[in-house]
Design brief:
This protein has about 300 residues and is an alpha/beta fold. It is about 40% helix and about 20% strand. The protein has twelve helices and 14 strands. The protein starts with a strand and ends with a helix. The chain binds NADP nicotinamide-adenine-dinucleotide phosphate.
């Protein structure tokens, strides 16, 4: 199977590329820089993408997007977060729909931010969208695949939770703080964190890629979400460090701005991966202790 991947240089995409190659997939990165041999060039914002490169591709995994955590959420950054997702996805979906032989499946990134801040209520793929910037971006991001769906391509939206691995994402930022014994809960700590080990994230992406009956939104989260207080205690426990300090909500809002603090650190999403479980996907790390052990293990 020939699989094109956008965002292949990122935290998830680079590990995915390394996993798919040895599993027999022919991986073709879709890159924003000048493409090398075996790569496809694109410019997500201008709508430019090499149609000859896409011809003959059996599947596309679309991960490219501006990172939400690297800058404060000022207006220019919020615009980049939105445009990279919506315009980039529309560019790709339109190009795929126009191909004489479109790929069978488009697996397109989304996020559990779709659900907004929902307290302790269990959320499944059938739950409605929430409110806030992240929820609005995710709705527009998923809708931007419409051209591909209308052309008969199977479209899967990866509603991914917090991906845990020491080499990237949230955990990489948290680890130095916790290792110095400066870790602690965010705000009240009662907010739910729906996490997934990087290993299960990659396995789930391969699972939806190869399972014809799966389309539409799919929650990529472990079946056992935890509160921020429980996550803090578990991480401190594995690292054998104290985690008593904690960051009050007010301090986080001063440091990051209210919207970013509220939507990235203080928001509560208790998500159940119903579609994956209903289709028989077996999580290797359903609980946080196993998830953290895998996330912190040295590379094999
Ligand atoms: N990591 C998580 O916990 C998490 C959680 C929920 C959802 N997601 C979503 O999953 C996807 C992959 O996440 P990740 O953690 O691997 O992201 P990442 O490390 O930030 O990588 C994303 C990749 O997208 C491309 N990119 C960066 N800025 C861009 C822009 N302005 N416009 C277009 N492309 C841009 C880059 O690849 P090139 O330079 O090769 O183009 C980059 O390597 C993203 O869509 C993310 O929103 C991730």
């Amino acid at each position: 199977m020939k699989v094109a991947i956008t965002g292949a240089s990122g935290f998830i995409g680079s590990s995915l590329g390394r996993a798919l190659g040895p599993a027999g997939y022919d991986v073709v990165p879709v890159v924003r820089r000048r493409p090398g041999p075996g790569e496809i060039g694109w410019d997500p914002l201008s709508g430019d993408i090499d149609p000859d490169g896409l011809a003959g591709v059996d599947a596309v995994i679309h991960l490219a997007a501006e990172n939400v955590a690297t800058w404060r959420w000022n207006d220019p950054h919020k615009r980049r977060i939105l445009d990279s997702r919506v315009t980039g996805t529309r560019t790709l979906a339109t190009a795929l729909a126009r191909l004489p032989r479109p790929p069978g499946v488009l697996v397109s990134a989304s996020a559990i931010a779709f659900y907004g801040d929902r307290g302790a209520a269990w959320l499944t793929e059938a739950s409605g969208a929430g409110s806030g910037f992240g929820a609005e971006v995710c709705q527009a991001w998923e809708a931007a695949t419409e051209a591909a769906r209308s052309a008969g391509i199977r479209v899967v939206h990866l509603r991914t939770g917090i991906v845990l691995d020491r080499r990237g994402g949230a955990l990489r930022r948290l680890l130095p703080v916790f290792r110095f014994g400066l870790g602690g809960r965010y705000g009240s700590g009662t907010q739910y964190m729906s996490w997934i080990s990087l290993d299960d994230e990659l396995r789930a992406i391969r699972f939806v890629l190869g399972t014809d009956g799966v389309s539409g939104p799919v929650n990529l989260t472990a079946p056992e979400p935890v509160t921020n207080a429980a996550f803090t205690a578990a991480l401190a426990g594995v690292l054998r460090r104290p985690a008593v300090l904690g960051a009050p909500a007010g301090l986080l809002r001063v440091m990051l701005g209210r919207e970013m603090a509220d939507e990235l650190l203080l928001t509560s999403q208790r998500v159940r991966p119903e579609v994956l479980l209903d289709h028989g996907f077996a999580f290797r790390h359903p609980g946080l202790d196993a998830g953290l052990a895998a996330a912190l293990a040295p590379a094999a």
